[in-house]
Design goal:
Blueprint: H1 2-7, E1 20-36, E2 51-53, H2 60-71, E3 81-82, H3 87-95, E4 101-106, H4 111-119, E5 122-125, H5 129-138, E6 143-147, E7 158-170, H6 175-186, H7 195-202, H8 224-232, H9 238-246
Parallel strand pairs: 2-3, 2-4
Antiparallel strand pairs: 1-4, 1-5, 1-7, 6-7
Length: 247
């Protein structure tokens, strides 16, 4: 979404958001394709002709759904029905046998999927290796990831793709403010935990908010305040940047 917005692509075509700046990549948001076990869906190719929920209209999940469908040569016209709902609504439709498959882009474990799995037999649909290679080449902000089988008690690990949840800010926010915000995300004290430590207490994905991956998948310009902090921490090396510019 950040990439599309800054460069004026996809749903932001003709209405780019050039004032968008990055602070940090936080944790992987994984594309999770969930189908009813009795739907006959085993692979992404099997979803053609089924009742699809691609996420909320205009959401990041829908963008990811459309990207995956495009890799397989599918459009919404290839489905028996398409209904736009959020995570909880989609899970309810699958539970009520009113939909066959849904896409969810979120950090796992996702509570809506866990709750659905308690009362409904589900299949976590994998993306096959050739399509993962195609998607990660076409969309550089994606990367391969594997959902371990114990996350949702599936028979096998589930290969899919992920993108990083990102913290973004308006370019006009003062440099010192963003510098202090970035520092507060990664640095804390015994009396005052860092933002990352607080997130780790709230959700399993919080432990993945780490300084070493703060720039992973950052496809938009950094805010100068964040850049200042990362230079201090050695994630951005001014000498290499200068050398590259000279060359």
């Amino acid at each position: 979404m950040a990439y599309n917005a800054y460069f004026g692509k996809a749903q932001f075509e003709g209405k780019a958001v050039p004032n968008l700046r990055g602070i940090a990549s936080l944790y992987p948001e994984t594309i999770q394709i969930v189908a009813r076990a009795d739907s006959g869906i085993k692979t992404v190719k099997d979803i053609k002709g089924k009742r699809l929920i691609p996420g909320d209209r205009g959401s990041g999940t829908e963008v990811d759904t459309l990207n995956v469908l495009s890799a397989y040569g599918y459009t919404y016209k290839d489905f028996a029905s398409v209904d736009w709902l959020g995570f909880s609504g989609a899970a309810q439709r699958l539970q009520d046998k009113q939909a066959d498959v849904t896409f969810t882009t979120a950090g796992w474990p996702t509570s809506a999927i866990q709750e659905l799995a308690f009362g409904t037999k589900i299949t976590m649909v994998p993306i096959d290796e050739p399509m993962i290679k195609k998607l990660t080449k076409t969309f550089p902000f994606y990367a391969k990831i594997v959902i371990p089988k114990d996350v949702y008690k599936t028979a096998k690990d589930v290969p899919t793709i992920t993108t990083m949840a990102q913290w973004v800010v308006d370019a006009n926010v003062p440099e010192e403010t963003v510098y202090q915000m970035t520092k507060a995300l990664f640095e804390g004290t015994p009396e005052k935990p860092s933002g990352a430590e607080l997130m780790a207490k709230a959700h399993a994905q919080g432990k993945n908010v780490q300084l070493k991956t703060a720039l992973s998948g950052m496809a938009i310009p950094l805010h100068p305040g964040a850049e200042k902090y990362y230079k201090e921490k050695g994630l951005i090396k001014p000498e290499k940047k200068a050398a590259a510019k000279k060359k």
